[in-house]
Amino acid sequence: MTRELESLRQQASRRQSAQEEVDRARALTHAVSEYAQASVTASESEAEAVRLRGTYQDLRQAWQDLQQRRLDQAAAELAGRLEDGQGCPVCGSSVHPAPAALPDGESAVTKQDEDEARRLTRSAETAYEAARLQADRDNLRLAELRIQGGDGD
Q1: HSE (CB half, 13 Å, CA atoms) of 51?
Q2: DSSP E strands: which ranges in 10-150?
Q3: Span 72-84, mean pLDDT?
């Protein structure tokens, strides 16, 4: 009876070991199949983050260019408000012999233009940050699957 009991214990132990091997194999198979999809997802989200970063940088540069143009046009903006006989808001003179004008072919940049460019830039920055965070999450998931053997190594 003791031998039979020992034999049954050994069989149970082997069965348990075999089941653990099967479970590990299933987990590895799952990791490998998920890794392929996660790799595609990570690549796509990374590409989207790069694209949105470019959009954000372009819009930020356009906004900064508008700000600079508006500063460059400040004298013409002030001159546009001058009235004969009224004091200049800069120097106080009531005589305005040569008021500044916009360069030929250049349109005035308004505060509204600048504000809209700022709004577009902030919106693009928010979209880029969200995409960057998603790409980070996707790359983290890919790394987790790699650790689990999902890359087949």
Answers
A1: 8
A2: none
A3: 83
Q: The tokens of 6 are what?
A: 């020992």
The helices-and-strands tally (H runs, E runs) of the chain is 3, 0
What lies within 8 Å, CB to CB, of 48 at 6+ separation is 131, 134, 135
User: For residues 140 and 153, what is the distance between their CA atoms, to the nearest angstrom?
Assistant: 18
- pLDDT band at residue 153, thresholds of 50, 70 and 90? low
Whether the Cβ atoms of residue 87 and residue 94 lie closer than 8 Å to each other: yes
pLDDT of 50: 98
CB 129 within 8 A of CB 43: no
pLDDT digit string (tens) for 8-60?
778 777 888 877 887 777 877 787 888 889 999 999 999 999 999 999 999 99
Task: Please report, as a single letter, which amino acid is at residue 117.
Answer: A
Which of 52, 36, 32 is closest to 134 using CA atoms? 52
User: Positive or negative CA dihedral for 116, 122, 127, 128?
Assistant: positive
